[in-house]
Every structure is written in structure tokens, then in C-alpha cells.
Design brief:
This protein is mainly β. The protein folds into two domains: 308 residues, no CATH class; 89 residues, no CATH class.
Length: 481
């Protein structure tokens, strides 16, 4: 998860886990494609709307597990990961009705959160041919309280339903690196442009949590997504009856530079014609060797979440470019803009009635949808900025929660003298608090803000904590494909 923060406010970003609930984050710094391709919803044909695609070069309109594995490269940093990760792109529609792709900053991150079922110490890797969808492309309303009620009350209707959990699995995180970040999955809808202009100076982070409970029988998408379900607290909690197998909890993050359009009249829309955000969704096709992935699930448990801390992973250069092959019908399609309609001529559906986009197992048939046209402003829930709540690393995640993780470091910080004998014992940790992205052209500067803490303790009761702050810099590239 990206962590929005500055040197003036060193605070943790989304979720960090205890050693028994480890994770790793998979950086995919470049898109492998931007196109109307979705083999889960529109297999063998052009999909209705444009997707930002990451992962294997073997991805295509009728891609299978074998196609992904056979792909010549991946846009993600671990070469063993030939999975495909895709979500609808984000567009801006100006006052004249023209559409422009919003710049995607830093690619995407796919988090593998390792939460076993209660009473277990292990969990299962994704099996060969596994695929799933999160979110509902046709959703256009939200009938639950804003903000969320406490998770302790999610055990009664209507919160103990998959319908609620699916919508609670969406996040639209307002980024401002000068202040304490919002918690992830805090806001389940796309803020209106006035709010984005006034508050989100560093853009908008779109977040998506996938189901992690599996029926253990079906690998492929059938009847939409009935083979998987959310646990009782979206990413934590217990699995419902009929879904006994706990898989890694997959979490997507993509950052879009909405502030590029500050002061311009218009609105932002998800590529499926959704100005509300309620219809945001994502797709996943497993592309790992399942034996290797199980080894990684069992082995890659360093609480830092850094892929560099797992000895199994082969990590490629961050500048590596990997592109999918477009079908001939899409080679010349303008998906960047300015264009007079959304790619695929998708109509704008503001709700609250559901839209009629294609879904897995039941694609829309008949004439193509009508041309997009400027839509009037729609009412969205009111949810002001709220700094995420700081929690101890041993606490259970709640919406708005902010966690920190401490990992050993060899760096030493001078501690204040302890005048009371005997000599104090010192321990050193480094806490990864945030990831900040800035962009100029194709260059993306990643700033990892860290705080080093030395704890000095004498055998009686004295404890002194001395913070020190520094930055680790990395440079990436990004493009428009």
C-alpha cells in the first residue's frame, strides 16, 4: 500500500501486519497495456470499457493460465509472477464533453496479505487456473451509513452480507503528502471534483480488496463470482459457510493524478461510465507456478512486506518495459484522449439505478450502448477528510486504521546518555512509514519515508525513544500505454 505523508507528518499509511499475519507487496511499476480487453467478462471479444493492465505479456482477449505462464515478460518486479492484474482506467470529462485519460502515477501495487483462518497457522496459495473478480461494474448506489459503522457491529444484517462487504472493499483515498494520511478503505465512493480540487493535492489512490475465501472446487469465473466470498471483516475475520479454504488476501492500489485538472470544470469517471465510484472493480488471473507460490506464502513472511526481503523472489529492474500484444481492432483506438466519448462509446450511468454493463457469465448482447454525453453532477455521500487512527501493530485492522511495522536495521542513532547504572541495552528498528510519489514527464520519484527508533532500557524501568528521520529515494519510469 502506498503511504501518503511528508517529513512534517511522519505517520503510517495503510496496514502493516504482525509476523503471524505477514504480507508482501508486488510492485508493477509500468502498465503492460491500456485497452478494452477483459478475458473474464468478454472472452474472445473486445470488452466494453478500457482497463489499466499489469503483469504478463501473455494477457489477451482470450488469455488462459497457460498463456500467462508462456508470456515473454511481466511488468511486475518479480519475474516468477506472470499473473494478470487489471482495473478500469480513470478519465476526466471537461465542460465541453471531451474525455481525457488521467495520468496513472507509479503503476500499481498488488498486496498479498497472509491471513489464515482462525485456529490455523497456514493458508493455501492460489491454485492453477484460478481467477476472480472484485466489485460490481453496474453498482451505482450505496445504501449503508457513511462513514462505516464499527466492525464490532458487522455481525448483524445488512452488514453480515456479501453485498455490503463487496462495497466496503472499495477505497478512494484522498492523497495529500503534507498531512497525516487517511486510512485505507475509508471512503467507498469517488469524491466529487470540488472535493478533489480542494483536498487531494497529490491525487487519488483507488483501492480494491478481493475475496479471500474459496469454495475449494471452482477455479474459473462461473455465474459471476460464486466460487469466492469475503471474510466477515473484508480482509480479516471468518469465512462464511461453504467457503472453507483461505487464500491470500489480494489488495490493489493505483494512484491517479486528479490534481492535474485542478480548476477545470468537469467530472471524473471510471472507464465503465461510472461517475460515482460505486461500480469500481478489478480482475485477477493467477499466473504463478502454484508450487512456487505455496513456498512463497510459507516463506515470504518478513513483516516489512518488501519483496527484497524474500529470498525466493527473482527481482527484475524497475525500468523493465513489458507490453501485451493488442488485437488488430484495438491497435489504432484512442484510449488516451482527448476523445468525444469514453473508449467503447460507454454511456455515463449516474444511478441510483444499476447500469447494464457486461458481467462475467452474462455478457450484454444486442446493439452497442449509446454514445456518452455530458452528465449533470450527481449527489454523492458527504465524508470529509479524516486522519487515519494510529493503532499498535498487534491490533486488528479497522477502517481508517493506520499501522506501522518495525524491522531490524544496522543503522545506529546516538541515544541520550543514561546516568543511572548499569549500562543500558539498546535495540534499533526502522519503521517504514510512507511511500510518496512525485512525477515529471515519464520519471517517477519514489520517496520512502522512514523513521529510525532507538529504544534504550535499563534493568529497572527507564526507557528512552529517540526518533530520527530520513528518506530512501528510488526512481521509476511510467508511460501512457
Amino acid at each position: 500500500m502506498h503511504f501518503a505523508i511528508s517529513s512534517a507528518a511522519l505517520t503510517a499509511g495503510f496496514l502493516f501486519l504482525t509476523p503471524t499475519n505477514a504480507f508482501w507487496r508486488m510492485p508493477c511499476r509500468e502498465r503492460s497495456g491500456l485497452a478494452r480487453i477483459d478475458p473474464l467478462v468478454s472472452p474472445g471479444s473486445i470488452s466494453q470499457h478500457a482497463h489499466a493492465i499489469h503483469g504478463s505479456a501473455g494477457f489477451g482477449i482470450d488469455a488462459s493460465y497457460n498463456d500467462l505462464i508462456a508470456g515473454s515478460c511481466t511488468s511486475c518486479q518479480v519475474t516468477q509472477d506472470k499473473s494478470a492484474y487489471w482495473t478500469p482506467a480513470l478519465y476526466f470529462q471537461n465542460a465541453a464533453g471531451e474525455f481525457q485519460l488521467v495520468d496513472q502515477v507509479g503503476g500499481m501495487l498488488a498486496y498479498y496479505l497472509l491471513y489464515p483462518n482462525a485456529g490455523n497457522t497456514s493458508l493455501s496459495a492460489f491454485p492453477e487456473n484460478f481467477q476472480m473478480i472484485a466489485g460490481n461494474t453496474n453498482q451505482r448506489n450505496f445504501t449503508y451509513p457513511v462513514p462505516d459503522i464499527p466492525k464490532s457491529n458487522w455481525n448483524v444484517a445488512p452488514y453480515n452480507t456479501q453485498a455490503f462487504l463487496e462495497q466496503a472493499a472499495l477505497g478512494f483515498n484522498c492523497l495529500n503528502y503534507a498531512i497525516t494520511p487517511e486510512g485505507s478503505l475509508y471512503r467507498h465512493f469517488l469524491p466529487d471534483k470540488a472535493y478533489l480540487d480542494a483536498n487531494c493535492l497529490d491525487g487519488l489512490r483507488l483501492e480494491l480488496m478481493f475475496p479471500s475465501c474459496w469454495d475449494g472446487q471452482s477455479f474459473e469465473i462461473k455465474d459471476q463470482k460464486e466460487h469466492v466470498a469475503y471474510p466477515s471483516e473484508v480482509m480479516t475475520g471468518t469465512c462464511p459457510s461453504g467457503f472453507p479454504i483461505r487464500l491470500p488476501s489480494l489488495f490493489y492500489e493505483t494512484i491517479w493524478n486528479t490534481y492535474e485538472f485542478v480548476g477545470q470544470a468537469g467530472q471524473f469517471l471510471v472507464a465503465n461510465g461510472d461517475p460515482t465510484g460505486f461500480g469500481y472493480h478489478g480482475d485477477f488471473m493467477m499466473g504463478w507456478d502454484p508450487v512456487f507460490l505455496q513456498d512463497a506464502v510459507n516463506t515470504c513472511t518478513n513483516p516489512s512486506g518488501q519483496i527484497e526481503d524474500c529470498p525466493l523472489f527473482n527481482i527484475q529492474d524497475e525500468y523493465t518495459t513489458c507490453n501485451i500484444t493488442l488485437p488488430s481492432a484495438l491497435v489504432s483506438e484512442n484510449v488516451v484522449g482527448p476523445i468525444s466519448s469514453l473508449p467503447g462509446n460507454v454511456p455515463i450511468a449516474s444511478g441510483p439505478a444499476p447500469a447494464n454493463g457486461a458481467t462475467a457469465g452474462s455478457p450484454v448482447t444486442g446493439a452497442p450502448p449509446a454514445a456518452s454525453s455530458a452528465a449533470s453532477a450527481i449527489p454523492v455521500p458527504t465524508l470529509s477528510y479524516s486522519a487515519g487512527q494510529s493503532l499498535a501493530s498487534t491490533d486488528t485492522y479497522i477502517p481508517g486504521g493506520i499501522f506501522a511495522v518495525s524491522v531490524p536495521t544496522s543503522t545506529t542513532i546516538a541515544a541520550p546518555a543514561i546516568t543511572t547504572p548499569p549500562v543500558a541495552a539498546a535495540s534499533n528498528t526502522e519503521s517504514f512509514f510512507s511511500t510518496e510519489y512525485t512525477t515529471s514527464g515519464r520519471a517517477v520519484l519514489e520517496v520512502l519515508w522512514v523513521e529510525e527508533i532507538v529504544t534504550v532500557t535499563d534493568p529497572v524501568t527507564t526507557t528512552v525513544v529517540v526518533p530520527g528521520r530520513k528518506r530512501h529515494l528510488r526512481r521509476h519510469m511510467h508511460g501512457q500505454q
